[in-house]
Amino acid sequence: MSVSENNATIAANPSASQEQTQESSEKTHFGFQQVDKNAKASMVAEVFQSVAAKYDIMNDVMSMGIHRLWKRFTIDCSGARAGHKVLDLAGGTGDLTAKFSRIVGDSGEVVLADINDAMLRVGRDKLRDKGIVGNVQYVQANAEALPFPDNSFDIITIAFGLRNVTDKDKALASMYRVLKPGGRLLVLEFSKPTSEILNKVYDAYSFHLLPKIGELVAKDGDSYKYLAESIRMHPEQDVLKDMMQDAGFEQVTYHNLTGGIVALHRGFKF
Amino acid sequence: MLVGQLLSAGIEFTLNQLVQLDPDCQGRLKKLSNKQLQVTVRELPWSLLFSFSQQIDVSTLTPSDQETSTESTADCHITLDLSTLAELKDSSKISQLIQQGKLDLAGDINVAQGFSNLMKELDIDWEEQLSNYTGDVVAHQTFSSVKSFFNTAQQEIEKLADQFSTRLTQPDAVAVTPAEVEDFCEHVNTLRSDCDRLEARIDNLIASQQDDK
Fold first, then answer.
1. Does the beta-carbon distance from B55 to A102 stay under 8 Å?
2. How many angstroms separate the CA atoms of B28 and A21, rounded?
3. Which of A73, A103, A131 sits opposite B57 (nearest CB)?
4. What is the per-residue pLDDT for A2?
5. Which residue out of A67, A96, A103 would a mutagenesis test of the B interface target, given it has the greatest number of B Cβ atoms within 10 Å?
6. A28, B34, B105, B174: which could join A105 in a potential S-S bond, CB 3.0 to 4.6 Å?
7. Assigned domain for B128 exists
8. A259 or A218: which carries more pLDDT confidence?
9. Is B73 in Cβ contact with A131 (below 8 Å)?
């Protein structure tokens, strides 16, 4: 890994892909399909490569703008203060990074990390256009093997990224390692609606309407079909809570947002 | 659940729009750069945290967030009632409000005063703003018409008030003038004095009659 100057991108961890090659015989899910474990990362990368340019507009259209409130809630629960060091993992187009950058100020630092270089490029361009420079670094990194020293960050957030990670336990362990004692991890992710009626409406929306919106706006219905499928394959609220506790996080709690369509999990490292 | 976020988003959007509309505001905002002001309104379930940079970011803090927040807090934390909020417009009143016990303040008072001044000194040229969308001529005409409408309305209201007051105090008036009220009061006072004197004389007469017996 080579460390960059401020605002430059660094590629990280070739060892991670070597490990994955050794595990090539193992299977994992990619939406509803079963695929080789080492193929998932590149398949997910293809999806995001395809949607990167229209990612922000699709988020607004798909969620009717509510994703902004979910992200705002995440920041409100982060306890971010001036001087903090924040890792915005799978940060994509930098929605959380932009706000964190202003909150932590000149004495703090935000690292926007994403495995996908197309998403990272869109995020970097967007933040620079907004004048957000100086305390933001961009790192291309795999969440399963984070290229940072132990105990580096006060806050780690991963918003709508964990479900795309091949080995979630490994990723949570990696996050735990780089989090400072006293620091907190916030996982914002699609989850399971708490009401059966909402669940049915949500299913109808995700599997019938969403791919059509994707086709219409981003000219890519398949990627949004994957989105709907990957949400269903993601561990539900209590399972993810257990996974975080198994990784070592303490005081793990979660908040259901919009009837459980999305959940914010929070855990501390002490 | 997301009501606080909706509120903070609305406040943040409004503040930043206002700040952008006043070109001189950026200089004053820069003085607050990297500072945080926490405002707790007792009637609300959460506090609002204002973070200042090249813009203003507003977050909500629930009591549980405040308990678990790691180390530092905002540079200034003010706690007050909703009714006191409007009085904060005048930064010189902050010390007075603290003395009156209407406002609790912890931390750097300059941050609270700086924010108060920032809002108070906002000077937005609305005509200029409108001209960005409509052009100078339409904007000028619109504002002239609005000003003229308000001036005319004000004059008409004053005239109407005059007429109403005159109507009430005419010879066949339904109300009396202040001079008439004063005159009436004087008469009542004179009558009261006369009554008092008469009562005293009667008392004297009764007393002298009893002495003669």
1. yes
2. 57
3. A103
4. 34
5. A103
6. B34
7. no
8. A259
9. no
